[in-house]
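Quick note —
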Amino acid sequence: QVQLVESGGGLVQPGGSLRLSCAASGFTFSTNIMNWYRQAPGKERKLVAAIDAFGGRTNVLDSVKGRFTISRDNARNTVYLQMNSLKPEDTAVYYCNTFRGVDYWGQGTQVTVSS
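Predicted structure written out below.
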């Protein structure tokens, strides 16, 4: 079965960096678009970044452009989200996602940006 397991979240001061990882299993990772979403308290889940199967094309939310980078390692079945220059408004639970007929989600990892 499809499994997505996120890691790397935590508490960081404004201006700091974190790298999130999502380890995937149960499907042919190298054929799937992979996504990172986030959900802040009281708000809808929102797409933050997406990467195509070979890592050649990526897309990120306007508010994180120039700060966040999505990448993948198909040999390790892992997708990453490098987050730099973090702001308090980046505080959210971050979820890994892929679609294979239905949406699959990880359990989420909390990112808190606060001084």
